[in-house]
Automatic annotation (TrEMBL):
It holds the Pfam family Nop53. PANTHER family: GLIOMA SUPPRESSOR CANDIDATE REGION GENE 2 (PTHR14211), RIBOSOME BIOGENESIS PROTEIN NOP53 (PTHR14211:SF7). This is Ribosome biogenesis protein NOP53. Belongs to the NOP53 family. May play a role in ribosome biogenesis. The gene is LOC110978435. Residues 132-151, 310-324, 346-366, 428-442 have a biased composition (Basic and acidic residues). Residues 1-21, 87-151, 271-324, 346-373, 423-442 are annotated as: Disordered. It comes from the Eukaryota. GO terms for biological process: ribosomal large subunit assembly; rRNA processing.
Length: 442
């Protein structure tokens, strides 16, 4: 409810005299009217005496465009209260200095070296990699932004799934596929590791056997398979013979090993061994100790003159070596062709080694890796002798086991680790005779 204006109480005074009438009468409205008329006379005449054409005019200017307030930028309104002015910074007052200003940290030696190299145009491999990644991300962002802009202009992009354009879209990186996944499932696709789709091994899932293992092979293929099987069995037999020969070597018992160790460790500690003739014998037939550096006689001693000459000779040899090295360095200028040839030979050698490493790496891709503690045992080759071959599939006898073949294939392709069957321990039961049974038997 609006508050009513307060009405002042009218003064009750006598106005029977002119002095009291002038004192207590309110003539402010008359004064304002007369002041307004005088103002109009000063500015061109009374408004009541002027025509409408002099008082009003027609606005022919174009209206200004009103800027829509999108709500993105909120302007700060004027400060209503005087107290809020205290919160604003005073431009006439400088900021207070810090009591303990932090000194600028001097860059280290490593940082200075890196800056010097960058000023010369030398950039590290790590920084080059980061620059390359940022450039790729920037280009990808620009492509995505341009695609979104085009899509907003022309509407939703459509293409033939079975046409040639579909393959191009899929090769771009799966951006359209991600957008379709997000639009249909309303969930963001999980980012997979870059090597998620890579297989652990390049070996095929199903290996094709040799042509000699067919139910109706040619003579050459069958003979080649028989020879390969013979070589494999011969190698196994050689390994078994070697193990058998090793087991035939007489082994020392623990007591014999201990006695041998004690005799070796205590050799030369007891004087009885020297008396028996087992000790070391000197050249003169006596057991006296021979000094490594025998005493020098007076005639063979080194004098100061001899020492000085030896020192001068060493310095001269050192100087000759330094001069020779200096000459070799100076002559290096005149053998630029040979130096270039040596550099080319080293480059060719390193390139050949690199190609050899690449070839070895490709070959190792088809070899099963050591994926477990146990060694992978290859399955024996399936072979049929000449008298076992039949001419039709109806008479063919199946060999091998499908599950065992798949299990070995998983181990070869490093999908599962190599395992061995381990016999479980038998539960040990305690045997006792029940009291009730004992009473019955008794």
């Amino acid at each position: 409810m609006a508050e009513l204006p307060k009405v002042s109480k009218r003064k009750r005074v006598a106005k029977n005299r002119k002095k009291a009438w002038r004192k207590y009468s309110n003539i402010q409205d008359v004064e304002d009217f007369l002041e307004e008329q005088r103002q109009q006379l000063r500015t061109g005449g009374l408004a009541s005496e002027k025509k409408d054409q002099d008082l009003f005019f027609e606005d022919k200017k174009a209206p200004k465009a009103v800027k829509k307030n999108t709500g993105l930028v909120k302007k700060r309104g004027p400060i209503q209260h005087k107290v809020d002015w205290r919160l604003l910074p005073n431009p006439r007052v400088p900021p207070a200095p810090k009591a303990f200003p932090r000194k600028a940290k001097r860059p280290g030696k490593r940082v200075l070296e890196v800056r010097a190299k960058e000023s010369q145009g030398l950039v590290s491999a790590n920084k080059r990699r980061r620059l390359k990644e940022s450039e790729e991300q920037r280009s990808l962002y620009q492509e995505t932004r341009q695609r979104e802009k085009t899509r907003q202009e022309i509407g939703r992009a459509t293409y033939d799934v079975w046409g040639d354009n579909a393959a191009k879209v899929i090769k771009k990186g799966g951006i359209e596929a991600d957008e379709h996944f997000l639009r249909v499932t309303k969930n963001k696709r999980t980012k997979l590791p870059p090597r998620y789709q890579d297989k652990p091994s390049k070996l095929p899932a199903v290996e094709i056997v040799a042509p000699g293992a067919s139910y109706n092979p040619s003579l050459e293929d069958h003979q080649a398979l028989i020879n390969a099987t013979y070589e494999e069995e011969l190698k196994k037999q050689k390994d078994e013979d070697r193990l058998e020969r090793w087991h035939k070597i007489p082994k020392l018992t623990a007591q014999q090993v201990q006695e041998t160790f004690i005799s070796e460790m205590s050799a030369g500690l007891f004087p009885e061994e020297a008396d028996c003739g087992t000790g070391p014998v000197t050249a003169g037939g006596e057991g006296d100790d021979v000094l490594p550096n025998p005493p020098t006689t007076y005639e063979n001693r080194k004098t100061k003159k001899r020492k000085r000459k030896e020192k001068e000779l060493k310095e001269k040899e050192k100087q000759v070596k330094a001069e020779k090295l200096q000459r070799i360095r100076q002559n290096e200028v005149y053998r630029l062709r040979s130096i270039k040839k040596e550099i080319a030979e080293e480059a060719a050698k390193s390139e050949a080694e690199r190609a050899k490493r690449e070839q070895r790496k490709k070959e190792m891709e088809n070899v099963p890796k050591a994926f477990g503690h146990h060694k992978l045992e290859e399955e024996p080759m399936v072979i049929k002798l000449s008298d076992e071959l039949v001419g039709s599939l109806r008479e063919l006898k199946p060999e091998g086991h499908l599950l065992r073949d798949r299990y070995k294939s998983f181990q070869k392709r490093n999908i599962i680790e190599t395992r061995t069957w381990k016999r479980g321990q038998k539960a040990q039961y305690k045997e006792y005779e029940k009291k009730s049974h004992k009473e019955i038997t008794a």
